DNA sequence: AATAAAACTTGCCATATGACAAGAAAAACT
DNA sequence: AGTTTTTCTTGTCATATGGCAAGTTTTATT
């Protein structure tokens, strides 16, 4: 029996036929990233996106005061993409960096466009994925307003436990909009309960 | 000379041909909303979206403690849509309410799908619009972490001056993630400079 | 194994913003 | 025009979180 392609999981619950999936998957190229290497850097225009087969990745921006702010974490099965830069063809403000050695499946913009415009269910899938990212961002954004830091942390632990276990405290802290000092105290408080 | 359709402005800089634009525009239906009426309510699934010809609209959620949090403001030329609910066909958590009497142009999901799948440039346009919303949300989200309340307010004044002039302080405050009390003080401080 | 570099914790104090409540002003309604 | 309701302002005090710096622990490097 043949080994299933990793991307068959990713495209698991789309409406694409077996054949459509095969066509799409055949266009992806396996690439690897060493820990700390960049998938995308500020000022460049994203020309690829990836699905992660293994490893951890984060995106971040440098704010006006020079602070590093994590905007997202990515792990196995996730799509790694800078939506605005990839689709609007603009230089990005974000950096995307491997937090560990990673194995990914890569697609470039031109090939994406071919698939998007030729396969109806591929574009439905793409739209669903983008809207899913939008939704996650909105939830995070509302959480920043409605919830206390401790609750935001607990939510992250629940939603992405493997991220919390594998990523340094300072990156998690900036993602939650607090300092590493505060997060350390929050962890202490939770531990003592 | 014939009066141009309002939506010709909205679709101004797409790659759609005159004919394609005409087809798309012909599918929109003019609707009006009275002040305080709802375009969408929590628990329902969005089956339409709109472009605003005149008036002001806001979207908001009720958080776990019962607080009303404004998630966005919309004014002339803007698209008013709950992306996740409209595309994922899920009940929404958001409410969309007219802040003044409004004139809008409405499209339903089914008609949208027809246009999306039949007109290449319509879907390019739609994708661009969605990515634009994503980008705006991301900027707002980062601003919540990186900037002080006063700076967030000043940015809003710069980006949406007509909103600041026409919307009540408490709605602006929750959008900025602060209380109306704090915003009142921030305004006072700015005025005294 | 030794050393250097990160990552994490903890203490002390500062500060932005919140909570609540009372007035003042403005807007909506009859 | 008068009354009610909503919006906005201001005072006092509380609190979540930040800033900084000194340790400690863990991880990476030679």
From TrEMBL, chains A, B:
GO CC terms in record: cytosol
CDD domains on file: CAP_ED (cd00038)
GO MF annotations in UniProt: DNA-binding transcription factor activity
SUPFAM superfamilies: cAMP-binding domain-like
Superkingdom, natural source: Bacteria
Coiled-coil intervals, chain numbering: none
Cyclic nucleotide-binding domain location: 15-116
PANTHER family with a match to the protein in the record: CRP FAMILY TRANSCRIPTIONAL REGULATORY PROTEIN, CYCLIC NUCLEOTIDE-BINDING DOMAIN PROTEIN
Protein's UniProt name: cAMP-binding protein
